[in-house]
Specification:
four-stranded antiparallel sheet; 279 residues; Immunoglobulin-like; 3 helices; alpha+beta
Length: 279
Amino acid sequence: MRHTRVPAFPTSVRTRSSDHRNLTRSGVHPFMKASRLAATGALAGAAVVVLSSPAFAHVSVQPEGTAAKGGYAVIDFKVPNERDDASTTKLEVTFPTDHPLASAMPEPMDGWNIKVTKSKLAKPLEVHGEKISEAVSKITWTADGKGVEPGYFQKFPVSVGALPENADELVFKALQTYSDKEVVRWIEETKEGQDEPENPAPVLALSAASEDGHSHGSSAEDASDDSAATEKTAADTSASTSTSDSSDTTARVLGVVGIVVGALGVAYGVLAGRRRSNV
């Protein structure tokens, strides 16, 4: 009896049958799984890029210490460089015209040329009994070197005064110029009840005036605090010295008394011994 040989299935047929079995067991074709994994990886990568993006800062102004109404203060214009391919090479700050400042003196800075622009006032100011007919309207810093490079920020200090007594804040407008000639205009004022604009202008908040009405910022306050601390330290030292002297005197008296009592005890012991011997 001859046996009929059944031909084997081609390799391609076996592969398709295996894939079909995998598909029927899991319900998803292996190629579709790979596609889904690739898509998930792409979305995760995009999320990482978004979450790792830096939060953009803007030009701002803050006092060194306090900026009290009617007084003087040193304020810093903080300028971060938001570009990764250009440096900040110029800063122009326009001073408020509704509350002009009679005095505005920038601090010299290495690597920067500073220009102070003054303008005539429509209404003269009276400062310390003198009438001021012009005030600083703009200060411009221009880099003569690399400027503020990517990844860095720079502070631009200015001594200002006298600060107005009838305002709660001062709004400055700034122009930031990059080395590729791009200009960012930080001039938008924030309106009450609304979100901060895209390019907000720097705002200096003013604190309440001091009791004597002549606040001179943190320097005068620090000097007063240092003087008070020095006086307190001297008083504490004096009190400590007096206490120490008193303690030393007491100790000496007690020491002498102890020596006398000890000597008397020894003498008494010797006499008692002699009496016993005689008896």
